[in-house]
Amino acid sequence: MAWFRRFYGENPMHLLALLGCFALVGAVVLELYPNPSAPLILLWFVAAVIAHDLVLYPLYALADRSLVLTRWVRRRVSARAVSVAATNHVRLPVMGSALVGLIWLPTISGHAAFVAYFASDLPPTVDFVERWLLITAALFLLSAVVYAVRLGRAAVRERAS
After folding, report:
1. Cα gap 38→35, rounded to integer Å
2. Taking the CB of residue 21, how many other CB atoms lie within 10 A of it?
3. Which residues cross the membrane (predicted)?
4. For 67-90, what is each residue's pLDDT tens digit?
């Protein structure tokens, strides 16, 4: 295996995974080729990649970096180290809310109200924005409860030691 790693530069499983990805892309291309809307699908895909890589990724990387820097500054100012980091307790609900919002954006924005009615038998008057906000609030509430429990356990551990 050492010769393969020297020749290829990585584990053989990496090559296998890469070939599997290329096979999947090839199957999708062959499936879409006769479709008359294939150029529009390709344009949408390229725009999504560009929007993610050039716009969204720097924005949420900057937001995440600000969370990490806030924790670092707090540690530098205080003589006592932070016992439980809050970074992931903010990061996970934000990511969950953004993911739900992105997946259900047409329904939340009201552009797919009749599709939602057809699929779920809910009338088009149902306000999906309120439901998304309730899901977001529930995610943050659950995260806050978990953080409070972790803070309580850390305080008990510090008193015991």
Report:
1. 5
2. 10
3. 40-62, 98-119, 131-149
4. 777 665 555 545 555 577 888 898
Check residue 125 and report its DSSP letter.
T
pTM for this model (two decimals): 0.56
Tokens for 58?
Answer: 């720097």
Encoded tokens for 40: 């529009």
Query: Which tokens hold the place of 147?
Result: 């953080």
Token pair, residue 85, equals 């980091």
Domain ranges for the chain: 85-161
What is the identity of the amino acid at 2? A
Cα-to-chain-centroid distance, residue 44: 20
The answer to which of 70-84, 97-111, 136-150 has the lowest mean pLDDT is 70-84
Residue 102: C-alpha distances to residues 71, 97, 109, 124 (Å): 28, 8, 11, 20
HSE-CB at 80 with a 13 A cutoff on CA atoms is 5
Q: What is the distance between the alpha carbons of residues 58 and 51, in angstroms, rounded to a whole number?
A: 10
Q: Where are the alpha helices (DSSP H) in the chain?
A: 2-8, 12-32, 38-50, 57-77, 87-103, 105-109, 113-120, 128-160
